[in-house]
Design goal:
about 170 residues; alpha+beta; OB fold (Dihydrolipoamide Acetyltransferase, E2P); 2 domains; 6-stranded antiparallel β-sheet; elongated
């Protein structure tokens, strides 16, 4: 009897087939995350080795890269706005602790890829800003999640098998 006066039925452990199924699902999830990490790595390499943009390609979705001079319009907790050659560009950024209104009007160096800003250096400041959705950031997240599921599935299987062997 338990403290609350009710009898609890003892749960039957998973069969070997059930253990294999749980491990297979964990490995499948891990494989999917590792595949996503690999795809993010491919896109990161494409981005870093992209050819220089021609002037007509700068604001188009062509797979090219260029660094341009511009002016900072605003830098908020999660977004940066710049003016580059008369084009008003908005970049979602990794969140900051606070806004930086005093930096408005500062000269910036903007790295563009596929027609959108991916990196901004504020000249005269030691402030470098990256876009929130860069493939390199995704590669790390997906890679760690994939490894977690592969290892956790294997460890779970091993612990369950050892527990079954000790009961017998």
């Amino acid at each position: 009897m338990t403290d609350d006066g009710l009898m609890r039925a003892r749960k039957k452990p998973l069969s070997i087939r059930g253990l294999f199924a749980v491990m297979a699902l964990a490995w499948l999830a891990g494989g999917i995350f590792l595949l996503a990490a690999w795809r993010s790595g491919v896109e990161d390499r494409r981005m870093s080795t992209a050819p220089q943009c021609a002037q007509s390609q700068v604001f188009t979705p062509e797979k090219c890269r260029i660094e341009l001079d511009g002016t900072l319009i605003s830098l908020t907790i999660s977004q940066t706005q710049v003016d580059v050659g008369g084009h008003h560009l908005i970049m979602d950024t990794v969140p900051f602790k606070h806004d930086y209104p005093e930096l408005a009007g500062s000269p910036v160096r903007v790295t563009m890829y596929r027609g959108r800003p991916i990196h901004i250096d504020i000249e005269g400041q030691r402030l470098k800003i990256d876009a929130r959705d860069l493939p390199d950031e995704d590669r790390s997240k997906f890679g760690y999640l994939g490894l977690f599921f592969v290892i956790a599935g294997s460890v779970n299987f091993a612990v369950a098998l050892l527990g079954r062997r000790n009961r017998a």
